[in-house]
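Recap from last week: sequence in, structure out.
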Amino acid sequence: MKYHIGIDAGASKSKLVMTNDSLKKIIETKGGAANILKQGKEKSAETICNLILKSLKIAKITNPEIECITVGAAGAGRKSDANEFQNILSEKLEEKNINFSNLFIISDAEAALEGAFNGGPGCILISGTGSIAYGKDPNGIIIRVGGFGRNIGDEGSGFSIGSKGINEFSKQIDGRHPKTILFDIFSLKLKISSSEDLINLVYSSNYDLSSAAPLVIESAEKKDRLCLQILNDEVDELLSHIRTVKSRIAAPSMKLCLSGSILNTNNYFSKIFRQKIKLLNPEIVIIEPAFPPEIGAIVYGLKSKPL
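Predicted structure tokens:
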């Protein structure tokens, strides 16, 4: 029997699925983070190898004939990074006597796209810590919009929402802006009562600004005017992402799948997003993904392997 392995290697965890040629699932396992930029390529490769070995052991498979290993890796959006990681991972797989015929490295977003539409055309919008839109036209051409990272973009992401909320909180805590619901919620949840506390939290404790996004969303749901404006602005940024994808696909309508903690959680932000897209862009239809990213990685491998 020939086996196919698909891995969704993310910034917080990794997930592996092994199937046969018919995409029948044999085993599914989880491992540690493997973002090739955050964890590093060497460490991420080690994590992935260990995850494969763990899966083979659990499934009691010895000397498997692995046709394809396809990794949808966070941080692999640039070809140079993907190629370098492929070389490192290939060497580690050989060192650990994991035999395979084909190895593919794609971005986690492309794996999500392939899974969502089972290899067909459509658009996936991801909003978690960061944000990006990936589309595919009927000819198989990939369209990428956004995904520039927090220093340049990531509009509509948890980081962008959270950082704007923290910025507004800083203005309210020292009196530049009048206090609103945001101030009460941030003070209570972050246990902050002074500007010094806030500075220590962000700079000394390395606070993840995306963690503040739920506080902004909670404040907006309680009708905080400033937070409502933040959410509406960030929703408009995400709408700009998918409208750009649609214009480049040049189709009268487009199917859209949503991914990431900000959009896939039942929260006030995702509610505003869905309402706006239904009102302003009814030709863009939100659907549920056909398969998760790890299966999307296998779909990519099956179509990309040599005949």
